[in-house]
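Bench notes, bay 3.
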Amino acid sequence: MPLNIPILLTWLRVALIPLVVGVFYLPDAWLSPFGKGVASTAVFIIAAMTDWFDGFLARRWNETSAFGAFLDPVADKLMVAGALLVLVEFKQLNAMFAFIIVGREITISALREWMAQIGASKSVAVSSLGKIKTTAQMVAIPMLLYDGTLFGVIDMRYWGTWLMAVAAVLTVWSMLYYLRRAWPLIKEREGQLK
């Protein structure tokens, strides 16, 4: 396993996941419910920034690796899934949004693994639609974790919920896009097995 700054940043993101979730389980005497939302939001934003920064540094310093390519999306998916679970548990997000997003990630991860096995991984390479979906999620989640009014004006739960709805639509759309791209190969393989 290579060890460089981009991979260390990815490991930092993995290490921050329990903090995003765990802060909500602190006793209220230690941190108010509002304080928990602020702390969780701050940790999530720091973790999300490492996602951008580790990729930037890996490309800039030419320190990309197969392990880094594996660990980076795993860290992202764990971070999103952990945040979604805590949001559902504390009733700050409808479980249907979490199901759609996590279900899509499982489906597309399995599809990518299968496509890699048959040597067609480029057919399901990350698209711009997937990146837009991820951006919508990464903005909506901290808004929902914050769960208050920002500057006394912006209702973060309201806007976070709307943005999460957009992310859910983009999630389904991007899943269908990947499945449509893979469908001819699936049919071809199915024909070979008969």
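Next record in the batch:
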Amino acid sequence: MTSHHTAEHRILIEREEIRVTEWRLAPNAATGHHRHGFDYLVVPLTEGVLRAVSATGQTETPLQPGSPYFRKAGVEHDVSNGGTAALAFLEIELKNRPG
């Protein structure tokens, strides 16, 4: 499915060792293809489905508020909202753990 909207984001904290970004995605909105330069955590603020498309295929990750997940640096993908309601999460990048 092709996205018609761009995800909205704002940086909440930017320090030498950490960056915290709030992401908000309307249904079908996408972040655009990107590479994660640091290890990172995703902390869901809403329930929903996060769809990721990478060179190896597509995955869907169900999100539940208060159920974070961790990924290593180097992940490359385009992330979109795979659900029918708005989706929000915090991305916490560990800037002292590049990859």
